[in-house]
Write a structure and sequence with these properties.
This protein is mainly alpha-helical. The protein has one domain: Myeloperoxidase, subunit C, CATH 1.10.640.10. 43% of the residues lie in helices and 4% in strands. It contains 27 helices and six strands. It has a two-stranded antiparallel ribbon with strand order 1-2. A hairpin with a 6-residue loop joins strand 3 and strand 4 (382-387).
């Protein structure tokens, strides 16, 4: 592993021949597992939960709150547990508040992030932008913010923000956090840390019960092909649900339909099964399918380098490959030959959780365009043009009733998202009016959140991941004019450059949509989400999923899911090898 670190620093994994590059990435991942997983503490489970861990009925399904995944430590990864760290705890102090507010996040938003002209990511489509937000809503949430004592940002005289100063609420602190100033702040998750489809199935019992049809294991879907209107009354638009928009609605609808199709398949195979058993198995299969799509399709689309394309497929299917692996079964208990699904569970010495650093590098809002053109999936006729605010939570149903789900999916499939770079942050997100009437600059908030949660700034972050820091602004970016602008905002102090600014500025490996620095966190955490989850490892079996369920996952891709429910998309999607790459235009 030390050798692969040296090879990476000397040559760069992305400049090596793909076979050697893959070996180098495996070594980097193993090194990161040793050095970049930090435990922030896990509470002991109560007696009732310990008893449930021994009950086969609870062990055979995903729980609503994420408990009972690890049966020896039943609270691991559940709602209310802490975010972990990929850096030592001593490196995660946020520092004095006055220093934390400098340079001013609003100034950074205006000077370095504002979209001056739309910079497209031509190798992707907008469905890829919607997908990552759909997945993030399953992975992490810090819950409701504190109501008292917000951060206050001074504004320049020419700033058009309507209130002075700009107020940004604080992240709600972990109620069990140690008040001792010698320890860094900790924060807890409002969703489970597991990859369990909670964005569809819910994270509380009330919503989880409300989405179910109560028959054949299915989820509720209206006669119009959309989730019932009543479900809209169960969400709090002042929270994460306020970020809902047409792109998320399309994917929620699609995978609700997919769940129901899985139920139909299981019902044919097991006609005597109860509603609960059908639901539990369909959820397992649907969540695993989403994980497979993200691993083998979305990620290779956004990091379209030959080495990483192979590496991501191998993460799921191993070096044996999917086709031969289906004939041979999982070879051994390791992950290299046959992939992580079906291998042994391993937390690599640290209780599983998602991390604040993982949250920080997933700030990908530049993917969103400011405006959307909706076209007919039949003949490409222009139906509507809408700015993003007209596609938000309060307008979703109206827009989809006007446009139709198939037409909206087609429109997303042929359009380009934005490139993840400086000066490409959507302007509407810098003046975002939320459904509850609140207003925020999301770019400034992103910068502040990363600082508030104790994630190191760019150069120190790179050091902690054993990457060489940028010694000058000219080394940070290959654009001399950009280097000067960043220098001006940070008053010539390279060590103060924020992580998000550095991630957007640094030159990217060939085919990459995001930075190599961010990729180091993904190398570690993307595999960890699978490797720590017993439903993706030791319990990824025909006994747990059924043979029909495993076949469903193996036989499905994002393209087959789309065509299963919206066959009219075939002329546009039929020739595409990856549904997150641009589709063909019809007509």
């Amino acid at each position: 592993m030390a050798l692969t670190d040296w090879i990476d620093r000397r040559f760069g994994w992305d400049r090596l021949p793909p076979p050697l590059g893959v070996v180098t990435l495996i070594g980097i991942r193993n090194r990161l597992r040793q050095r970049n997983l930090t435990d922030t503490g896990l509470p002991a489970a109560g007696a009732e939960l310990v008893l449930k861990a021994g009950d086969p009925a609870y062990r055979a399904r995903r729980s609503v709150d994420g408990s009972l995944n690890d049966l020896e430590r039943p609270l691991m990864g559940s709602i209310g547990t802490r975010f972990g760290r990929n850096v030592p705890l001593g490196e995660s102090f946020r520092g004095p508040e006055a220093a934390m507010l400098e340079p001013n996040p609003r100034t950074i938003s205006r000077e370095l992030l504002t979209r001056e002209r739309f910079l497209p990511a031509s190798t992707l489509n907008v469905l890829a932008a919607a997908w990552i937000q759909f997945e993030v809503h399953d992975w992490f949430s810090h819950g409701e913010n504190e109501e008292q004592n917000p951060y206050e940002l001074a504004l320049d005289d020419d700033d058009d923000w309507p209130e002075r100063p700009m107020a940004i609420p604080r992240t709600r602190r972990d109620p069990t956090s140690d008040e001792d100033a010698r320890t860094p702040d900790t924060f807890v998750t409002a969703d489970s840390h597991w990859w369990d489809g909670s964005q569809i199935y819910g994270s509380d019992e009330r919503f989880a019960a409300a989405v179910r049809a109560g028959e054949d294991g299915k989820l509720r879907i209206g006669a119009d092909g959309l989730p019932p209107r009543e479900l809209e009354q169960l969400v709090d638009l002042s929270g994460v649900a306020g970020n809902f928009w047409v792109g998320l609605a399309l994917l929620h609808t699609l995978f609700t339909l997919e769940h129901n199709a899985i139920c139909d398949r299981l019902r044919r195979e097991y006609p005597g099964w109860s509603d609960d058993r059908l639901y539990d198995k369909a959820r397992l299969i649907n969540a695993a399918l989403m994980a497979k799509i993200h691993t083998t399709e979305w990620t290779p689309a956004i990091i379209a380098n030959p080495t990483t394309k192979y590496a991501m497929r191998a993460t799921w299917s191993g070096i044996v490959g999917e086709r031969l692996g289906r004939r041979l079964g999982h070879l051994g208990s390791g992950e290299v030959l046959s992939g992580i699904p079906g291998s042994r569970t391993d937390h690599h010495g640290v209780p599983y959780s998602l991390t604040e650093e993982f949250v920080a590098v997933y700030r990908m809002h530049p993917l969103l365009p400011d405006e959307f053109s909706f076209r007919s999936a039949t003949d490409d006729e222009l139906l509507e043009q809408r700015p993003f605010p007209e596609l938000g939570a309060l307008h979703v149903r109206t827009r989809l009733e006007e446009i139709g789900v198939a037409n909206a999916l087609y429109s997303f499939g042929i359009a380009s998202p934005g490139a993840i770079s400086l000066h490409n942050y959507p302007r509407f997100l810098q003046h975002l009016e939320r459904p509850d009437g609140s207003r925020l600059d999301l770019a400034a908030t992103d910068i502040l959140r990363i600082r508030e949660r104790g994630v190191p700034r760019y150069n120190q972050f790179r050091r902690l991941f054993r990457l060489r820091p940028a010694e000058s602004f000219e080394e940070l970016t290959d654009d001399p004019e950009e280097a000067e602008r960043i220098r001006g905002v940070y008053e010539g102090e390279i060590e103060r450059v924020d992580l998000m600014v550095g991630l957007y500025a640094e030159p990217k490996p060939r085919g990459f949509g995001f930075s190599d620095t961010a990729f180091r966190v993904f190398i570690l955490m993307a595999s960890r989400r699978l490797k720590s989850d017993r439903f993706f490892t030791r319990d990824y079996t025909a006994e747990m999923y059924t043979r029909a369920g495993l076949d469903w996952i193996n036989d499905s891709t994002m393209g087959t899911v789309l065509l299963r429910h919206y066959p009219d998309l075939a002329p546009a999607l039929g020739g595409s090898s990856n549904a997150f790459a641009p589709w063909g235009r019809v007509g």
